Amino acid sequence: MTSRVFKRIRSRISRSGKDKGEAAVDYTGPFTKEDLWIAQPKFSDVLPENRPALLIKHLRMCSIIFDFYDETSKENLGKEMKRQLLLAVVDHITTTKQWFSEVVCKEILSMVAANLFRCLPPSPSPDFDPEEDDPALDPAWPHLQIVYEFLLRFMVSTYTDTKILKKYIDKKFLIHLVGLFRSEDPRERDYLKTILHRIYGKFMSFRSFIRQAVNNVFYDFVYEDDHHNGISELLEILGSIINGFAVPLKAEHRRFLEMVLIPLHKVKNVSQFHQQLAYCTTQFIEKDATLASEVIQGLLLYWPIQSSSKELLFLNELDEILESATTEEIDKIQDTLFTQISKCIGSPHFQVAERALFLWNNDNVSNYTNEKVKDILPILYPALAQNSKFHWNQTVHSLTFNVIKMFMDLDAELFDKESKNYDAKFLKEKEQEKCRENFWTQFAKENGRH
């Protein structure tokens, strides 16, 4: 008896589900949060011809925005239902074929804009330090993550029509997308990096505008407001873009190197994106070797004076540039370059001195020194002699003696000459210092009598 009752209930449910699947889907709206409290049909529950309408309905319902600071039971139910709908539409465009149309494309971009193009949450502290403090994570991430995943899959899908997409992805959309790189949530910036790069690769006509929009972010960062969270991600995209530049380089690209990439070295928090920045500059030099002297000159112009950690970054980048620089390019900035290296060798910070002395492990630097020993030794000798006598660190002592031995083997006569010149100068300075001390001692005695 009981089994018959259950069979009747199941048959009614299946008939009602069948009727529901055959019914046309109403997507006119407008939809509110209350609509999300009601269970929505799945794509598998409706006929194939009704699925485009159901997709539009789901997209419009996913455009409803929730306040994640509101933890009431109804709000939480609505958030979960929206999350399920977002997952359903992601699955639908990933696993099915006949879903794209101009109407659907318009609805997708409207839904994406409604969810992503928003006022970003403020920094938790005005003194926020990305290196010390934990990043501020967006509370709406349970929805944002799925929207970003949806947008990424939508962009890379083989079923999207590029011609139709170009009608609706306008410059305003791209500017909003670039603007989101200010987000403090690293998860969001990582998605943005991938999506913007995909758009750049897919739409030839947008490339110039995307470069211009990114350049404007950098101009603002370098010359106006030096607070921006997405510089490293934008530089990562640019590194890939620069790699694809045709040679000879356009004037626009050379100007970007001169006006943006080189001045980026002067920003106080350069350590947060220096790895990506150094990659971009070396990519330019690989494209055009004649840019090496310009880049090195820029490094020397913005060389840090008080920050040893920044000096180490600059020395690492300099080493990488010198590895591929030609003799002609180094000749152009020889004196200023080796004067700065000499200062680093004599640095009281042992890591800076150590890193500067390690430059001679670079074959290009070593070979250049062999060729130009008569020009370089007079510049370097005072720092080397000072280190060998007075530097407190044993490792620096050992490395200094290695470099000194190299110069002695290269040209012993020149080395002896520089050694004598330095000793004479050192004695003269000591005598002058002693004279000054005597003068002030005598001065103090004479004034003490009165």
Descriptive notes:
The chain is an all-alpha fold. It folds into 3 domains: 23-120 and 136-202, Leucine-rich Repeat Variant, CATH 1.25.10; 232-301 and 309-324, no CATH class; 333-444. It has helices spanning 2-22, 33-36, 51-61, 73-95, 102-116, 141-156, 162-168, 171-179, 186-202, 207-223, 231-243, 251-261, 274-287, 292-301, 308-324, 327-332, 334-345, 350-357, 363-371, 373-390, 394-410, 412-449. The longest helix has 38 residues, at 412-449. The chain starts with a helix and ends with a helix. The model is unreliable at 5-21 (pLDDT under 50).
- Mass-distribution shape: elongated
| DSSP helix fraction | 55-70%
The number of distinct β-strands equals 0
Instruction: Look at the structure and give the CATH class of the largest domain.
Output: Mainly Alpha
Write down the CATH topology of the largest domain: Leucine-rich Repeat Variant
Measure the end-to-end span: 127 Å
What structural class do helix, strand and pairing data support? mainly alpha
Helix tally?
A: 22
Give the total of domains.
Answer: 3
* Helix-strand topology string: HHHHHHHHHHHHHHHHHHHHHH
CATH architecture type of the largest domain: Alpha Horseshoe
Instruction: Report mean pLDDT, rounded to a whole number.
Output: 89
Low-confidence stretches: 5-21
